[in-house]
Please model this.
Amino acid sequence: MTPSRLAAVLIAAAGLGFAAMPALAYTAYVSNEKGNSLTVIDSETLQVLTTMPVGQRPRGIMLTKDGKHVLICASDSNTVQVLDVEKRQIVAELPSGPDPELLNIHPSGSPVYVANEDDNLLTVIDLNTKEVLAEVEVGVEPEGVGVSPDGKTVVVTSETTNMAHFIDTETYEITDNVLVGTRPRFAEFTADGKHLWVTSEVAGTVSVIDAETRKIIKIIDFEIPGVQQIYIQPVGVRVTKDGTKAFVALGPANRVAVIDAKTFEVEDYLLVGKRVWQLAFTPDQKLLFATNGNSNDVSVIDVPSQKVTKSIPTGTAPWGVTISQE
Amino acid sequence: MAFHLPAGFPGRPKQTWGFLLIAGFLGFFLSGALVTVRADTNGEEAPKTVSDKPTLVPIGYVKQEVEEFIPLSRLNVKPDDLGIAGAEIALRDNNTTGKFTDQKFTLDVERVPVGEDAVAALRKLVAGGHHFVLVDAPADVLLQLSDSVKGQDVLLFNVSAPEVRLRQEDCRANVLHTAPDLAMLADALAQYLVWKKWQRWLVAKGVSPEDKQYLEAIRRSAKRFGATIVEERAYKATPGARRSDTGQQLIQLQMPVFTQGAPSYDVLIVADRGEIFGPYLPFRTWDPRPVAGTAGLRAVSWHPAHEQWGATQMQNRFQRFAHRFMLPLDHQAWIAVRAIGEAASRTKSGEYAPINAYIRGDKFDLAAFKGQKLTFRKWDGQLRQPIIIAGPELPVSTSPQQGFLHEHQEVDTLGIDAPESKCKLQ
Model:
């Protein structure tokens, strides 16, 4: 929260008493891949607060666990930038190695795991010392990075090898390799740590992997009337904290699929903007933001009603999105 | 197409005849010394530890050298390792995956000098245990090779020959084509021109049999997609020296005259596969018109500046490896080796029968930086793939274009579709 907004909240609280606290406003950060910029959005007013320049080709983006920084994969600058959310300034860079695309963070707040798409590596960086702790050799074109809630396992998907590699976060050794559908792009653990959801962009499927046995328990297919199968290309996936619903961004199919996360049945397809890439929930799980790379906007989905309620213009080619915890 | 080649071109020293490319990859393979790995699909058990002897998957490559004129532009001089470097980088990709699946891929290249026997080279590879062989050879040589191993456990990948007849009356059951044919390329270009509403075409045609094949494909595309050929004009000059001290003053006068007095047209289509005159036409036409076809705006399977759909990573790792740009033949060879790798990892096998069946089956798909899965057409063995429409320096578009509809897959609006196919695979 910016100092001015904090002041406004305090004044409001003082004047009206805590019963009249305004609805929580979160801040969404959207990376614009072609715009080389970051669009900052207020989740309550759904207005753009500011657009600021960042490194070249920003894609994967994630708020740090303490909420103080946003990490931005600036792929063509070959670095991960550290944005101070108070100052709204880039204050540091992480030695990510070449072409960082997606990253994730250990539940304890550090280290950071970065997929180096160009080098078949997962780079592990201590967020405090900014030192590289390890480089793990994985398959060809690593991209998606998922961290288990207990912090014991990090999973990397490799797009040309078509595997989810399970890596022990203590030893940095690969313990399991699970062959999934073609061009796996994103990996998301469920909050209970029991399942791992992996999207396969070219195969057009989502694999749900049992995190314990490391076996695929379900392959989810999609079928949209009037859309050829070949355009159904799953990328981003998010599962609600209570484990009931999953949302999958379907790329050029211009839809977000809503899936019953218990039965794995697809319940609905929500029409969003063009070429939908990534998704992020607000912490209260009431809203889901979806980045639309080809229509230069973010679609806001109301999670309880499963309706697209708003489209917010962004910079050019929005790709990643992360939302503050407060 | 003008490609600015980086320093060091034409790259690495010539591979000698029959040179084995295993050694370099052995080191690469052993560097990833992983103790415990497991590859799972749908609950099937796989070995938990890497054994001392991984499953071997040897891949062959027959390159029939041919006599060719040097190209008009020195930017387009063919690298000595054209195609082979694409196969090599795919082999690396396969072996990176092989670390986790306990499989090892090798590539053995047989270069056949002009006038020598490609069939003997293929027999040598087959005798050495190669079931999967890439072929970079003219159409007739490809057919000889196919016939020489008919009925054996050998699958050939045509990585270069674009002749339509290889997918039609001369199609073969033991050949899959990763190279697009002339019909696909012409359709891809035609769709873009029609989308652009440049539907009146003046055709400048060469007189060689190769040009005639291209012309037939252009005529077919015009008819399919609603373009009109306003006139076909033949350029009859015979090929001479590609460069001369006299320079290009004469060409500056010849090309406007050659294109003078044409009926009203939108775009000049060049059918000149041997580069006798086509590359001279852009910016020299009598009327100010764009040039497309075998010169100017072209339809290609790959372009060195193609960066969509993750292609940046492919271009980067190819350039680091080969010290030059990735060209269409490199990508066509990459696809063939990757198709073998993909089938081997999915079937957990190095054997001919399961790999061959998987590649041809419904489960096969390949990610190849084209924005959609690539598969093989069952009726003629042709790889289904979007085609890039490109100027010299940058891609302009990718076909199929929006609005050209197909009941199953829009990409099947490119080339010979099942109902019109004359191919009887045997």
